[in-house]
Amino acid sequence: MSSISKDLLRTIFIKYGGVPPKEAILALDEMDEIRQFATEVALLADLANVRVGNLAYAIDTGEVYLRGTSAFILLVSPQLFATEVALLAALATVRVGSFAYAVDTGAVFLRGAAAFSLVASPTADASAFLQKKTIIEAADIKLMASAPPTIVPAVAGKMNVLHGLALQLVAGSEVLTVNTGDDLIANYVAAGGLAATAAMETTGFLDQATNTFLVAKGIAVLAGTVAEVVNTPIVLDNNGVEFAGNATDDAQLIVWARYSLLTVTP
Fold this sequence. Notes:
YefM-like fold, 2 domains
């Protein structure tokens, strides 16, 4: 549900579901108070407890159902795929009338009788923003110098342009320890990695006993060869010695990356 906006749902209801505009607006307003289930299994098992006319949302699949007199009616089924390539390769496994969403490009497709129809493609316009959330567990935080995690995936034929990062430390039972010069930095993974941000100081951020927050802009000026940035992910690197501490391994680093995709000539 989080991957499909109310505007898109309104279009879906009116254009593909034949719902009158006023009724579509009312239905979307009701979604603000939508009944949520942790899984689709729980949703379907709880039919009798949902009033006729109510909307229900399965958190695990993102499917939205309308309660009829004796059963649910599937309204929206946003199947999620890690890449648009995987989405297009899995046509046969997605139900007719379902919506499929490619995490890497943000494209949304409607499953027709024989093929997908493109409903929305935020990457068609280079000015469109995409957002990727990554949760880095404590064990991986302590390996960021040797194995920096990917925060923006590579897309074939595209260049990732990083506009900014928001980072939150979810503090663990014990603090993480950092050394002087242990900074975080977002890099393109190629030829040593062009910097996509300036270095971010970790002292006073990553070594805290309470939840902390850090926001960083993309690099002010980025210049290099196209080969260094096309078909290339962006990783979050520790440019010093490995972090330590948090023996319980229950700390987390949550990273939100805001970026655009550009089609460039290799």
